[in-house]
Prior knowledge:
Blueprint: H1 2-21, H2 43-48, H3 51-67, H4 76-90, H5 94-98, H6 105-126, H7 139-178
Amino acid sequence: MHKTLSLGAMTLALITLMSAISATGVGAEEYAKGHGALEVFDPEGIANSPQWVQIWIFYIMLPAFALGLLFVWTKPIARWVVGGILASLFLGELPFAALRLPYLSGAIALAHIVCWSPALYFLLTQRPFLTASEPAESRFVGLYRGAYRAWTGLITFVILFSFVFDIRDAAIYIDHMAGIGILS
């Protein structure tokens, strides 16, 4: 318990510190706003995105991650999933700001890959979405286990589907920022 509180306090302090020194949009003024790898994905960028992207983010992806909050107290994989989304939301921009690189959609994709991969690893190696139903001591426990199984299947799909685009966008961003020019 003491380690959990200390880790939580350190995480909160780190988020606060890094948010204070973050340089939002460093060099981003020269890029268009949208969802492309080399575009600024801010509120205007979201508004400029196709409707399916907006639906994916606000009605599928974010709610799927938020459902993980139902399981964080009892399921370690849920902690990895929720921790991954929180890390990408609150800390994802920091390395780019420190390197004075623009935080474009491709950078967000790279943050997703780094922050969500540990959760995906546990989801794919432990496969809780495939576990057989065990007799539950109560109806509530049975519903909870079933909901957890369903959520792990959903969040695995969400992360894998997101990675289809994230891997491509991260590669384009790295190629562009490194000046290689093969993909951009």
